[in-house]
Structure formats: C-alpha cells, structure tokens
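QUALITY CONTROL LOG
STEP: pairwise intake check
CHECKER ROLE: data steward
CRITERIA: each record must contain a sequence immediately followed by its structure tokens, with no blank fields

ENTRY 1 OF 2
RESULT FIELD BELOW
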Amino acid sequence: MPRIAPLLLISVLTGCQLAPSHEQPPSPTAAQYPADYQPMDGEVLASEIGWREFLQDPRLELYIETALQRNRDLQIATARIEEARGQFGVQGADRYPTLAATADASRGRFPTGGAGATGAGSVGGGTTGFSGGSGGQISERFTVGLGLSAFELDFWGRVRNLTEAARAQYLSTVEAQRAFRLSLIADVASTYLAVRGAEARIDLAEATLQSRRDGLRIARVRFEAGITSALDLNQAQALLTQAKTELANLHLVRAEQVNYLTQLVGGPLQQPLPEPLPLNEQIEPLRLDAGLPSELLLVRPDILGAELDLRAARANIGVARAAFFPQISLTGSFGYISSELDNLISRDNRTWSIGPSLYLPLFDFGRNRGNLTVAEARENAAVAQYESAIETAFREVADALAGRRWLAEQVAAQAENVATLRRIADLARERYAEGVVNYLQVLDAERNLFEAEQAFIQVKRAQIQNLVSLYIALGGGTRTPSLTAQSDATQRAATSGR
C-alpha cells in the first residue's frame, strides 16, 4: 500500500489541466440569410460537388489543374504544412523519455606523484611505463551505457499543452493551405472569365468596326455625290474612331488578364489548348443550396483554421500557467565502466545513477505573470479573429446570394435593352437611307447600341463570376474531409477506446 500511494498521487497530478477548456464562441451572425434574396430549395450543396463538375470549360479545367500543380504561393503554403508537421513532431517527442546510447574510451598520462597520480590510480588498470623521462603512468578507461537526459515529469501539463498547441498550429496550416487552394481556384476562374469576357467584347468591337468602315465608305460616296453634307461624313468617321479606340482598350484589358492568368498557373501552357466554351455556357445551370450559416463552420477552411488558432492560444495559456509551478526533471544512466576493454561488459563493472531535479521560480520580477498576460491577450485576439472569419464568410455568401438574384434580373433587363436599341438602330438607318432623318440620329443609335452590347457582355460575365463566388463562399469542393476533421475523428475514437 505505501508504494501505491505515490503512484496515485502522480497520476492525479499528471491529470492536471491548466489550459481553458475549448468551447466554440457563439456565432455572431444571424441564423438565416436575408429573406429578400433567399432562394428556393437548392438542388445540390456546394461542398458536394467538385470544381471539375461545377466548371464545365475544358480550357479552364486545364488552367486550374496547372495552377494547383505549379502556383508558387500554393507551393509555399504546402511547404509550411511540412514545416508545421515537423515542429509538431519535435514538440510531441518531448512527452516521452529520450534514451541515448553512449560509449567512451580515453587514454592519458598522469604524473606519479601528487593528487594526479592518486586520481589516475583510482581509475585503475592498464598502467604501463614509458621510456625517456621521469616517472609517470598511463591510464586507460572504457565506458558504455544508456542515458536518460532531463526528462520532465509533466505534472502540470506544460509539455502536453505545448504539444497540443503545436498540433493545432500544424492543422491550422493545413486549413490555410486548403483555403488558399479554394482562393486560387476562384482567382483562376475569375481571371479566365475576364479573359473570355474581353475576347467576347473584342469580337463585338471588331464586328462593329467592320460595320462602321462600311458605313464610312457609304457616307463618303454619298458626300462625293453631293447627297449629304460633310457633317454626315465626319459623324461616320467619329463612329469608326470610337470603335477603334474601344478595340484598342479591350486588347489592353485582355493582355493584362492573360498575363495575370499566366502568373497564377505558374507559367505559359503548352499549345494547343482545348477549345473554350462560349461565355454563356461556362457553368451548367443548377441551383446551389445555401443551407444555414451554421453549416459554414464545418466546411469553410478559413473558419476551421481560425478555430484551430484559438485552440492553440488556449493551450498556450496552460503553458503559461504551468510556469508558476515546480518543474521536476528526471536524469538517469546505466552502463559499464572498466580499465580493460576485454572485461568491460561484466557484472562487477556495472554502474548506474538516477536522480530528479527541481526547478521552482521564486523571484522572476513578473516574467511569468507577463507571459500569462500575453497568452490571455492572444486568446482574446484569437476569439475575435474566429468571429471575424464567421462574419466574413456570412457576408460573402450573402453577397453572392444577392448577386444571384439581382444579377439575373440585370441580365434579363440588359438583354431586353439591347434588343430594343438594335431595333432603334435598324430603324434609324432605314429612315436615314430614305432621307427622313439626318445622320446624327444614326450616330446616336449606333453608339447607344454598341455601349449596350458591351454592357450586356460585362453583366453576363459578372453573373457567371458571381456563381463561382457563391460556390467558393459555400466551401465548394470540400466533399473530402479535411485533415483537421480526420484528426479530430481519430482522437475521438482513441478516447472512446480507452
């Protein structure tokens, strides 16, 4: 019984947990998305459909696949995962004793007289004379053994909390990489859609330019025949110049977007590329189910990462609190020592030692108190960052839902506007040919139609881009459980099995 009591005491002390228990802070957002643009029941959850299924364009798929392989920033995020995994492994090793094998051999000469000779004689055997000098002796010693170096008895959970903090930080880097991966998919898709939109506007501008060249040619013929005035000729020239200016600007926009897309995918792609889809066929019609805001906590990697940062901050509070208590370390060794190598491993040459060491802070001039204050402040900041991540996710989804509704109405209205302006332009050209109106009305009608057609392409691209934003904001493509979820499930299984 006397031997059992210390073991019970140690087990009780080892169970001490000085870190605050982890609880999710209450959600700072509403329980539902705003009702005025809340859609009908959706067809599919964004987390249940991969990006290849969502984005239909084969050229865009190639761009995204290449970016996921070659993007430098994603490679940096992946390398940080490996770094954090290594740090977690290093910190986790401190929870267990470190055994090291040692071996040593020494040979030395000592004077025959005085304390040196006595010390040498105490080491023993293998003494031989030497030639060419005054008296002395040569001593040899051989040792071999195992050593336990300063293993901390983690009564207060300091090492355990350090390991938990390292684990949470490691898993946080995993979620950060997943968040960046989603962001990269969104950036590549957005830039690609901007390129496709610019190309559609270039096609429109080139067709318009050709039409206005024909109009200028006709206006010059009519002017030279004395049918119209120089004003009509200059107005036709102005229409042509407008189309040329817009075309040059669109080529610049496209070049800038192509350069950015090349950077995102990590360099140019080998030609030829797959044929792209038209802008209005980029995404297969489907209704994404927005679900509830609370579901974002399970699928958004930025929120999961912020929660893991909060876990790490709370574990570090336990580390700071443990610094107020004694640290007890255990050092021991076992081995053999002899002056003769042939007889080293024998019962008579065994040697061992074991002993604890105690470190108790008495006067540190507020260092431990300051470290605890820092840890608590970082926990408060982590809570605020976690809540901010939830608010950001809620806003992004709400914005995308609003865009899905209102952009659809804009596209329909703009399409109707283009059809109306096209009829007006056709009528103006007919009336001008009949001599009913002057060329100024044709000029206004052509200019308005061109601007409306350009605006329609832009709002159509914005609608498709908004669907991509909604897909990403809802945690698109997170059907595979994250490493965090897998780790937590493994830990729960291990806990239930004990």
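ENTRY 2 OF 2
RESULT FIELD BELOW
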Amino acid sequence: MTTDTTQHAFTGAAQLLAAVQPAVGGREITDPATGEPVGRVAEPGVVELDAAVAAAKDAQPDWAARGHDEHRELLNRAADAVETNAEALAELLSREQGKPLNGPNARFEVGACAAWLRATASFELEPEVLTGDDGLRAELHYRPLGVVGAIGPWNWPMMISVWQLAPALRMGNTVVMKPSEYTPLSVLALAEVLNTVLPADVLQVVPGGREVGERLAAHPDIAKVMFTGSTATGKAIIRSSADTVKRLTLELGGNDAGIVLPDADPQAIAEDLFWGAFINTGQTCAALKRLYVHQDIYDDVCQALTAVATNMPMGVGLDENNVLGPLQNKAQFDIVARLVQAAKDSGARILTGGDPDPDQPGYFYPATLVADIDNDNPLVAEEQFGPALPIVKYATVDEVVQMANGLDVGLGASVWSSDLARAREVAARIEAGTVWINKHGAVDPRVPFGGAKQSGYGLEFGVEGLKHLGTPQVING
C-alpha cells in the first residue's frame, strides 16, 4: 500500500487521461462545448463486471478488518491525493462534462471531493447503548454490508462518486462503480488518483452500458446499490434488485420549487436565486427549477434576476472567464429546447435567452428566464435540468404551497423571506427532503440529504449516511 501520495502527482490532464484510456480501441468521448475528442474509454461488459465484483468481494474482509482508524487515515490520504492532482482532474472534468473551470464548477467540484473525503473520515459512529437498566444491556452496532455497487450520473460525476464511495469505504465495504456513459473518463481518473492510496481491489470502476448497470443492480454478491439519476432508472434498479433484496439508496429526479414571500428583498436575493437555479448550468438534481414569486414583488424579482443572468458569461469551460457551460449532451439540449418552446407557444414572456445560436458549436443553450407562465406549463411541470427557469406569480401562501407540493417529486425546495420565523412556517408545509431558507441546493457533508415522494429514499451524508452503509446489529445481553 502506498503511503506517500506526493510521488503520484500526475503532471497534467494528458498524463492522467493516458493512465485511464485503453491502449487500443474503445469508444470516443467528445467535448460537449466544442465537439472535439477528449479521449477514448474501454467498454467492458458483464464478464468484466463479474470479475470486478469477485475481486471486491475477496478484498472486503481484509479491508473491514483494518478498522475505523485506518479507514479514516486512508480517506484523508485519498483527499491529499485529490488535492495534489486537483488541476489535472479539473481540466479533464471540464473537457468531458463541459462545465467551466471557474465559478461553482470544475475546480469547485474537485475541491468538494477532497472536502467530502475529509468530512466522512471525521465522523464518529460509536455503538449506541439502548438500555442498561437492571443489568440488561443492549447495544446497536453497524457492521459492513460487503460489496457496494454505485451507479453515478453525468452532471457531477466526480463529486457524486465521492458521495457514494467515501461512506461506503469508511464503513468497511468495498465498492464497484459504474459511471455514466457520458462521463466515464472523469470517474476513471478520480479512481486512478484514489487508488494510489487505497489497497488493491477496494475501489473499482467498470464503465459500460445499460447491461452493466442492470447486472450490477441484480448481482447476487452486491449487498447494496447507491444510485443518483432519473426516477425512471431508479424504478428499474428497484425491480432489478428485488430478487436479491438489496439495500438501496436512491437520489432520483427532482423539480425543486422556490417560494419568494412578499417581504423578501429582490435585489438582495437575486444572485443567490440565480445560482440556486443555474449552478452547473442548471444540470443539478437539487437545483431550483420552478420559482414562485408573490405578486407584490413579482416584477421587481424578474427585473433583478434578469440583470444577474445577462451578466454571466457562458462558453468553453477551459476559458477562465466563463462560469456557465454547455448542456452535457444533445439529448439534454433537446429537452431544454422543447420545454422552452412549449413556454413560448403558450404565450409566456421570455425575459432573457431562449434563442440558441444554431451556428455555435457545442450544446450551448443561453441562460433563459421565463415570466408570466402558467403552473401547468410543461416547463414548470417537467424537470428541465438545464439553464431555463420559469417564474410563476402567486397571490396567497396557501395557493403557492399547493402548487409547490403538486408534483410527485420532492428532492429539495426553498423559501425566501426577510422574516425567518415566517419562512420556517412555510418550509414546514413543503413536501421535500430538504427545504432551504434564503438559499437553495447548499448541501453539507455533515447534514443528511435525501428525497421525498418519487425523488427517492435513503439518506446520504453525515453520521446518518454512514448508518445507511452498514447493517444494524443489536447485541443484547
């Protein structure tokens, strides 16, 4: 096992990319901002996945036996390795995913990987004494599950991978990951860096298509599946996992509502509203995707948001000036274009954006704000997952709560107000796993996170997240 991470510093993204590409063949990955090749990825299948699971199963008992202290130490060393290679990781991420280096994007994501590793290493999970009266003692412990399968998305490929792997490893499990077909190189590169520290076969990445994901979800030697992605795919994973009664943590689709109460200050909240919606160019599960503004300040909020949106530079991610990038793939571009067109067709008012340049290379859709739109418009009712925000006018709190709760998803939501007590009252009425006040999407490694309704189940982050990566065992006597 390597203990000195500094000797494993990659000299740049090219060297890191060379370490994870196949010597020959493979599938080409292109930059969504330019259409230019980024690299090639091998496409292993079910046979290779089975081999990875078998190796992870063999490695797991020794890994678990190392205990919490060594797990903590190695996660901290893994964070060191990420920081040593941060710029190379961020450049590769920017080219493959499309997000700019600056703003809350590629460098931010790589920094979050290191921070999450360190935070996860710091959590304490001691046995809980349930009763000790009259000489009768019962303790609740959490034991490793075994091999954890992780299936990740393309929007935050490195950071969400760490959200999955860090607590799994911390609890003594080994991990087999399947990245999105759109962003496999980023996850392979991250694992390459982490595996300069971790023991062999503790963490493995198997890129591949749907058949690999289906096999991972159904594999008899996978004890738990962690998945971040669409509700439809989550339901398929539930079905595939049923015969082996796997544990599941599912963070599924969201269509987060933000509610601006009439006492909010439009100028004070405008930039935070913008980034709540447009972080990662809107490609975030817990981004603000439909904004409800009280009629008394509706025009002022629309004006303030428009001023912010028109000043945010969008372009190729490696340009240091940009903070918004392209949609990651054509399928997502087409979804956003369809939904904005539906808004236009309904007579909604485009405040800014809504008119992509057909001659511009890449999947760029301009930051788009849509006003005077009905709550049942497809741009409001469907998750757009891109840089287009509908702004809906409301009159009463009862009305807006009903609209916010009217969908079958509930990942996150937010309430914006100068009166914190009033904001908390409204927040308590919202059907969502997390409701933020005067911010949106601000996840914290110490604070549990999970969805309500069809946005999934299970918790991530913090001590509660660790518990979901273990098997509870009561020792009674």
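INTAKE CHECK: passed for both entries
DESCRIPTIVE NOTE, ENTRY 2: The mean pLDDT is 96.
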